[in-house]
């Protein structure tokens, strides 16, 4: 039988949740807007995942038969495995947390693989289309952006003024809209590569970063 490592559900202040230094996921402004939209429309519907970094407290948790009693006697931090962005956005209120008895090594493995498993999933296009038809449109801007992306439509119109500044028409560069349909794993890889290019200062936004990556690939074969 597979071991259940979750010892209990706690609701704790955001100040008790500690981010993992090894967390490699980068959450940009667009993703935060989507999350805020979903929180505003639906609310909190999932707990973040954490482990106990204090060795003695973790040992006590493993031997305890009463999670509530253990929690009442432990006032130390809980270190996140999953839910870093949610914890940041909800830090002003109590946050539901699934507390595990993972070891440091196990927590590191979970941090590396927890979301990656979901990224490998494919999609049934017909079922998704039917589900989205039932869902309708989002009331919040961030929610509608996500739903539009799932529908395969345009996430938003290009504002030429914001994109190119106040340039004379004769000097305005040409541009085209491009919609990509790819697996979750490939989208994650694209986002990660774009983040590297932007952080290095080789591009100012995701669109430019994609162009830089493609140019580099063509140059080096």
Short recap of the structure:
Helix content is 49%, strand content 12%.
Describe this protein's structure.
With 221 residues, the protein is an alpha/beta fold. It has helices at 29-41, 55-63, 67-73, 84-89, 104-119, 125-135, 141-151, 160-164, 184-199, 206-220, and strands at 6-13, 17-18, 48-51, 78-82, 94-100. The model is unreliable at 153-168 (pLDDT under 50).
Major sheet, described briefly? 5 strands, mixed
Strand content: 5-15%
Using only C-alpha atoms, the radius of gyration works out to 22 Å
Q: Structural class of the helix and strand makeup? A: alpha/beta
Mean pLDDT across the residues is 86
What is the topology, as strand order, of the major beta sheet? 1-5-3-4-2
Tell how many strands the DSSP assignment holds: 5
Q: N-to-C terminal Cα separation, in Å?
A: 49 Å
Give the overall silhouette: globular
Order of helices and strands: EEHEHHEHEHHHHHH
How many DSSP H or I helices? 10
Query: Which residues form runs of ≥5 with pLDDT under 50?
Result: 153-168
Q: What percent of the residues sit in helical stretches (DSSP H or I)?
A: 40-55%
Give keywords.
single chain; 221 residues; globular; alpha/beta; 5 strands; 10 helices; 12% strand
Write the layout of secondary structure elements.
Blueprint: E1 6-13, E2 17-18, H1 29-41, E3 48-51, H2 55-63, H3 67-73, E4 78-82, H4 84-89, E5 94-100, H5 104-119, H6 125-135, H7 141-151, H8 160-164, H9 184-199, H10 206-220
Parallel strand pairs: 2-4, 3-5
Antiparallel strand pairs: 1-5, 3-4
């Amino acid at each position: 039988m597979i071991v259940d490592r979750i010892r209990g559900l706690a609701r704790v202040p955001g100040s008790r949740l500690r981010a993992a230094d090894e967390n490699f996921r980068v959450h940009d402004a667009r993703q935060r807007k989507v999350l805020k939209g979903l929180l505003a429309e639906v609310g909190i519907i999932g707990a973040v995942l954490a482990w106990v970094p204090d060795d003695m407290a973790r040992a006590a948790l493993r031997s305890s038969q009463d999670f509530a009693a253990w929690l009442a006697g432990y006032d130390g931090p809980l270190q996140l495995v999953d839910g870093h962005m949610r914890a940041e956005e909800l830090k002003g209120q109590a946050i539901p947390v699934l507390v595990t008895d993972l070891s440091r090594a196990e927590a590191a493995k979970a941090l590396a693989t927890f979301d990656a498993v979901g990224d490998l999933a494919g999609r049934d296009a017909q079922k998704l289309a039917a589900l989205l038809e039932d869902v309708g449109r989002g009331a919040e801007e961030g929610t509608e952006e996500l739903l539009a992306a799932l529908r395969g439509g345009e996430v938003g119109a290009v504002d030429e003024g914001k994109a190119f500044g106040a340039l004379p028409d004769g000097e305005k560069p040409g541009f085209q809209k491009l919609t990509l349909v790819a697996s979750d794993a490939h989208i994650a890889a694209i986002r990660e590569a774009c983040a590297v290019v932007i952080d290095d200062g080789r591009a100012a936004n995701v669109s430019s970063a994609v162009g830089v990556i493609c140019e580099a690939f063509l140059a080096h074969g």
